[in-house]
């Protein structure tokens, strides 16, 4: 299974021109013989323009979110069909910054299954807001994984990725330790084994995100359970981002 390094640009990049500059700088510094899939997710308006105006065979463009309906009275919504027809192949769903605005596991499940139906590869974000010493956070993760995958068919196990993103570590100076991330990822894997059986569960790629940097990427790369990374801030800095990629090459 290929590793995935997917950058979440959030609102950090302001214009199409700025986006092009960042992409060019990343492309210039990309290591040869890439072993991972490389994706960046700009805000939707920029993602669509960049996909059209910046052709790269090495960096794919993703969206940060989608809505599940394809039609009807849903002002302001962007459907998977809109994203797919723009040539975009990936989308994040269930990012904690969307969940903080009220998005539920059930809504994330609808987005994920709508994405797969439109041949987009959703990266489904899950993670606890707090860690407690008794390990209760494991059941928080389990509930969110079960809820967010509830509408996906086991046969589609290879068509999406799960990003373990502990909310308490997002946008901070320190990430979760590679050990903590690997433990949570193994727990997510076990949850999917319970749901779908081992063979299907092994087809699901699971990555880590939250305060990933060039400095800590190597540590995550050494954990076998971690099949890629989802950096935010670090993904708009070409040097940082390509060093994160290098850690997985
Ligand atoms: P961060 O963001 O790397 O800036 O912590 C990660 C994310 O929110 O996906």
Describe this structure in a few short sentences.
The chain is of the alpha/beta class and 249 residues long.
Describe the structure.
There is one protein chain. By secondary structure, this protein is an alpha/beta fold. Helix content is 40%, strand content 15%. It is built from ten helices and eight strands. The longest helix is centred in the C-terminal third of the chain and has 19 residues, at 178-196. The structure holds 2-phosphoglycolic acid. 2-phosphoglycolic acid (PGA) binds next to loops. 2-phosphoglycolic acid is lined by residues 8, 165, 170-171, 209-212, 230-234.
Give me the secondary-structure topology:
Blueprint: E1 3-8, H1 16-29, E2 36-41, H2 44-53, E3 60-63, H3 80-85, E4 90-93, H4 96-99, H5 105-117, E5 121-126, H6 137-148, E6 161-164, H7 178-196, H8 198-201, E7 205-209, H9 214-221, E8 228-230, H10 238-247
Parallel strand pairs: 1-2, 1-8, 2-3, 3-4, 4-5, 5-6, 6-7, 7-8
The protein binds 2-phosphoglycolic acid.
Order of helices and strands: EHEHEHEHHEHEHHEHEH
In the sheet with the most strands, the strands line up as: 1-2-3-4-5-6-7-8
Please tally the helical runs, counting DSSP H or I stretches of 4 or more residues: 10
The share of residues in helices is 40-55%
Q: Note the beta-strand portion.
A: 15-25%
Query: How many strands, which pairing sense, and closed or not: the largest β-sheet?
Result: 8 strands, parallel, barrel
Q: How would the global form be characterised?
A: globular
Low-confidence stretches: none
Number of strands: 8
Average residue pLDDT: 97
**Small molecules (ligands, ions, cofactors) in the structure:** 2-phosphoglycolic acid
Distance between the termini: 14 Å
- CA-based gyration radius: 17 Å
Q: Structural class, from secondary structure content?
A: alpha/beta
